[in-house]
């Protein structure tokens, strides 16, 4: 009898598959073949592709939040301060593939492709809500600063994905992030 996979092991396998082959090509069959199990095992834990993709994106977010938690040691007064703390942690070769998945999901949503359309809004809102907790001031300021931080970092990280680290670093310096 073969290895019995837990939900966590299957999710880790799904993340590895998405990193290797792309999030949009993640299917029950592809993941099952990679793990050497029946796709029924995958469906047992993830009843739909939306559940699987959402779980992978939640895992990506959790891993990025772990990385950023070390950078966000004190509350920030504004988006530049938080972006400055985040940039050295995010602008790395190790994190680039994770952001590749994030931007793939956003791109698929922008193109109107499900299940990404339905997931993108909650993905962005989740990041804004999480980032809001790192600011001083009133609640409306928290959200606006979190939105500005996300817009700034996403723009720089997209540039890093498309134009390379040196171009993103120059832009970060010009914008006052580095």
Automatic annotation (TrEMBL):
Domain of life: Bacteria
Keyword Chaperone: no
SUPFAM superfamilies: Homeodomain-like (SSF46689)
Sample GO molecular function, one term: DNA binding
DNA-binding region as annotated in the record: 27-46
Keyword DNA-binding: yes
Gene3D superfamilies documented for this protein: Tetracycline Repressor, domain 2
Pfam families in alphabetical order: TetR_N (PF00440)
Name by which UniProt lists this protein: TetR/AcrR family transcriptional regulator
């Amino acid at each position: 009898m073969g290895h019995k996979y837990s939900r966590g092991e299957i999710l880790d396998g799904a993340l590895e598959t998405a990193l290797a082959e792309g999030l949009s090509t993640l299917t029950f069959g592809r993941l099952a073949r990679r793990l050497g199990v029946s796709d029924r095992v995958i469906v047992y834990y993830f009843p739909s592709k939306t559940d699987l993709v959402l779980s992978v994106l939640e895992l990506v977010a959790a891993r990025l939040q772990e990385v950023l938690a070390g950078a966000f040691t004190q509350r920030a007064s504004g988006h530049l301060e938080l972006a400055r703390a985040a940039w050295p942690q995010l602008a790395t070769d190790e994190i680039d593939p994770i952001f590749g998945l994030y931007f793939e999901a956003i791109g698929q949503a922008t193109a109107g492709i499900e299940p990404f359309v339905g997931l993108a809004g909650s993905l962005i809102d989740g990041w804004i809500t999480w980032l809001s907790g790192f600011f001083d001031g009133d609640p409306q300021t928290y959200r606006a600063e979190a939105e500005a931080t996300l817009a700034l970092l996403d723009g720089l990280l997209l540039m890093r994905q498309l134009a390379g680290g040196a171009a993103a670093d120059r832009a970060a310096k010009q914008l006052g992030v580095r």
